[in-house]
Design goal:
Layout (H helix, E strand, L loop, with lengths): L3 E9 L2 H12 L2 E4 L7 E5 L5 E7 L11 E7 L3 H10 L3 E9 L3 E7 L5 E6 L4
């Protein structure tokens, strides 16, 4: 379903401490994501439902990234929607790029400064 928040990424320089916190407080469990050039983990509920991705920015190509939650929204056509967003004053910060199993994604800054990521679902 397009145009809705679907999940979030936590950018953290202390990913292990963040995972410990959310594991203790919300009961999430974590599994390593294979493939990226930086350490990251999928967060799941006790029932196995996907909740978020945690990225260790201290060991990535962007170690000075702000520590924050980055929401992801699904859109129907990422390239078209990014062009529309830029026409309305947004700045594309990263991407678009293909993420195996997740579709195409990009991060953007909206007018006023808020940051979010948008993605198109993978093609079947």
């Amino acid at each position: 379903m397009p145009d809705r928040p679907v999940w979030a990424i936590l950018l953290s320089r202390q990913a292990q401490a963040s995972m410990h916190f959310y594991g203790e407080v919300l009961g999430w469990r974590f599994e390593v994501v294979e493939g990226p050039d930086y350490p990251c983990w999928i967060a799941r509920t006790q029932d196995g439902d996907f909740r978020a991705v945690f990225v260790d920015t201290s060991a990535s190509g962007f170690p000075d990234a702000a520590e924050l939650w980055l929401p992801h929204f699904t859109v129907d056509d990422l390239d078209r929607r990014l062009a529309e967003a830029e026409e309305h004053g947004a700045t594309v910060l990263r991407g678009p790029l293909d993420v195996p199993g997740f579709g195409r994604a990009a991060a953007l800054r909206q007018p006023g400064g808020g940051i979010a990521a948008w993605r198109s679902p993978p093609h079947s």
